[in-house]
Amino acid sequence: MNPLAELVQNFQDLVAQVPELVKPLIVMLAGAVPFVEGELAATVGIVGGINPVLAAIAAAIGNFVSVLLVVMLTSRARTAVVDRRNASAHGGTMVMEAEPAQPESKGRVRFRKWLVRFGVPGASILGPLAIPTQITSAMLVAGGTSRAWVLLWQAIAIVLWTTVTTISVWAALTFLVGV
């Protein structure tokens, strides 16, 4: 048995000890974690022996639910900041102090370029190549993009990337390991 096949088999033996109903929930929780997201969560599920379609669906749902929560929280925070600024501009007593600028990460710089060049659809689809979908979503909503538009394009991006990864991993495992 080749080393890769042995590693996959050992992982599947470990996953086999988990009840069947819990396996997709674990994949779903993994999909909610930034940097793991739907792609890596589906991969772990497939390597663990879960049906690729079930793994992809669970991973994408977990990823989208976390994005939904981030969008809702960011939207509320943005509304509070805008309301506070409006109160200050109209004679309220609140004063906003400017925060010192911090250098942006390479991923955020790349994301901003994509946003300017391709708009929300392009930034949502290309964003996962630079930064997690949760951060992409927060940046879009904080910048004033509507929640519905962000959620629509993040859902499309999550389904797209999770599907591409799932098919690639399934094909690679089938070809390399015979799983």
Describe it:
With 179 residues, this protein is mostly helical. It is 74% helix and 0% strand.
Rg, rounded, reads: 20 Å
Bin the strand percentage. under 5%
Measured as a percent range, the helix fraction is over 70%
Series of H and E elements: HHHHHHH
Ends distance: 13 Å
Principal-axis shape equals: elongated
SSE order and pairing:
Layout: H1 3-15, H2 22-31, H3 37-47, H4 52-89, H5 106-126, H6 133-142, H7 147-176
Helix pairs in contact: 2-3, 2-4, 3-4, 3-7, 4-6, 4-7, 5-6, 5-7, 6-7
Short description:
This protein is mainly alpha-helical and 179 residues long. It is built from 7 helices and no strands.
Question: Which features does this protein show?
Answer:
mainly alpha; 74% helix; 179 residues; 0% strand
